[in-house]
Amino acid sequence: MSHVLDQIEVFAPATVANLTVGFDCLGCALEEPLERLIIRRSNTPGVKITAIHGADLPHQVERNVSSRAALSVLELAEGGHPQTGVELEIFKTVLPGSGIGSSSASAASAAFAVNQLLGSPLKLEQLLEPALDGEFVASGARHADNVAAALFGGLCLVGPDGVVNHLPVPDWHIAVAHPQIEIRTLEARAVLPAQVELSAALQQMSSLARFTHLLHKGDPKGAALCLTDTLVEAHRIPLQPHYSAVRQAALTAGAWGGGISGSGPSTFWVCRDRQTAEAAGQAIAAVFNTHEMPHALHLTRFSPRGAHTAS
Ligand code: HSE
User: Fold this and answer.
1) How many angstroms does the Cα of residue 24 sit away from the middle of ligand 1?
2) How far is CA 43 from the centre of its chain?
3) Measuring from atom 1 of ligand 1, which residue has the nearest CA?
4) Measured between alpha carbons, how far is 159 from 167 in angstroms, rounded to an integer?
5) Largest CA distance in the chain
6) Measuring CA to CA, which residue among 124, 137, 140 is closest to residue 73?
7) CB of 116 closer than 6 angstroms to any ligand 1 atom
């Protein structure tokens, strides 16, 4: 039997979306960083944000990703008219505009937290749409690549129909490099063309199909070598600090492949082992240092774990 608690601490992972090969349809959860949120029951029906630590974000319910997602779960669970009151205290460890699913970590943690507080009336799968209401606030689109991975964990394939398939998670070691600039998803989507060349679409289709096949075959290196992007990358490179040099440095250090994480500015580089990921990270850091670009590095792995409570 489920318990109704008065305060719950929840975490949701940062995510790498697109994985270069699957624009808007692939996303994978990272082991770290993790977003943290505390939800408390209140006597006033609806959602209120009590504090946001680590980022300057709106507190208005409809303008904040976390509260928007939380409200949608309340509405869904309580027949459109929330009777329960919840307060959110948000700890933004996954920084906004970083390209590793900040808004999705917020949306997923908030959606998951409300459902937990209510005693889990909704199945995990039912939280995807309300979490997307939150994601929409940030990106102006309902792509579920980051959100699905942040909610469910692992490597998710999610089409425009919202159906999620869980793919085998490759055991790569990953260097995520985050130059300390912000790129808003909305802006990174505005540079994309409405139409693409048939030949580019064909190349991308075959890469994604081969990637999926090799994951199922258990060939992480082969899958890594499929990480190409003929649809989006070229349009976003001008937004990315020193992208060509970063890519060259990572590959020379031994990374199998990688590219822009989500809509950037972070990039991700997949490697056979921790040592290679460290070398790739150092090589990228050297590029940024040369250009006096402040940056953060995460040496991490893909994780099967999505949104979860503190226990
Ligand atoms: N698929 C999205 C994009 C991820 O590339 O715009 C960013 O949220």
Assistant:
1) 6
2) 33
3) 24
4) 13
5) 58
6) 124
7) no
pLDDT band at 139 (very low <50, low <70, confident <90, very high): confident
pLDDT score of 1: 43
Say whether both 11 and 160 belong to one domain: yes
Which pLDDT band holds residue 2 (cuts at 50, 70, 90)? very low
Query: What's the number of CA atoms in the CB half-sphere (13 Å) around residue 291?
Result: 14
CATH number reported for the structural domain that contains residue 262 in this entry: 3.30.70.890
Radius of gyration in angstroms for the set of CA atoms belonging to the chain, rounded to a whole number: 19
Nearest ligand 1 atom to the CA of 145 is 1
Residue 239 and residue 105 share a domain: no
Cβ–ligand 1 contact at 263 (below 6 Å): yes
How far is CA 158 from each of CA 92, 149, 173, 195, rounded to the nearest angstrom?
Answer: 25, 9, 23, 21
Is there an atom of ligand 1 within 6 Å of 72 CB?
A: no
Q: Name the packing angle between helices 243-252 and 274-290 (round to 10°).
A: 150
Predicted confidence (pLDDT) at residue 4 exceeds the cutoff of 70: no
Please check whether residue 309 lies inside any domain of the structure. Answer: no
Residue 103: CB within 6 Å of ligand 1? no
* Residue labelled with tokens 């850091």: 285
Residue 18: CB within 6 Å of ligand 1?
yes
Q: Whose CA is nearest to atom 4 of ligand 1?
A: 262
* 307 located within any domain: no
H/E element, 45: none
How large is the angle between the packed helices 65-77 and 128-139, nearest 10 degrees?
150
Measured in Å, residue 99 CA sits from the centre of ligand 1 at 8
Q: Which residue has the tokens 């250009």?
A: 291
Q: Are residues 129 and 191 in the same domain?
A: no
Q: Tell me the average pLDDT across 114-126.
A: 96
Is residue 114 located within the same domain as residue 229?
no
Same domain, 140 and 34: yes
Give me the helix-helix angle, 128-139 and 102-117, nearest 10°.
Answer: 140
